[in-house]
Write a structure and sequence with these properties.
Layout: H1 3-7, H2 10-20, H3 23-29, H4 35-62, H5 66-74, H6 79-89, H7 104-117, H8 121-141, H9 150-156, H10 159-172, H11 179-201
Length: 204
Amino acid sequence: MYLRSYLNSPEVMELIDHIVHSDFVKSMKDGTIEDERFRYYLKQDHIYLKYYKAAGDVIGKNTGDDNIRELYNEIGSEEPEFHRNMLKQFGIDEAGIKESEINYTTYSYINHLLRWSKDSSINGMLSMFPCQWSYGYIAEATAAPSEKYLFWFDFYRSKDYRSITDKYLEILQKEPLSTYQEQIIKFGLEYELNYWKECYIEIK
């Protein structure tokens, strides 16, 4: 099965539906999520993005494909700045975020990315793709988000963000996925779902 077909499969559609309708995403959409919960998410995301970039750097360094190398040169050019702006907006000192604050899902997800980035360029990309794809899917599937978090939805449904997702798809669509590669994507989406769940329940 090719990637686009797999993304439309029942098991992927079920997972992405759970993500879109998770408590965190729903409360971000209607603007009712507490600032403290969103700050917790931002801190986890800050730690995650550090290792997401590290995984991308490994792929970019080891690949012999110029298109993959160009993609990973492009990835990270806008999102880190957007993320730093969110940290400032919610009063978080970037230098004060400690890796000891990492939760179990973030820790496990990071190791998933690093493991596959060292395996092969394509498998590394497949491990990273669920994050890229699901954020765009959430933003595009959410109608009339609240003014408070509109900036988040606008960024992840922007033309530039979609362009990166399309480049991922163009590269990863060239060959059919093995059953094992489908599992890499599925595991990534399960990490995404658990990430949203844990960011919501961690703050009581």
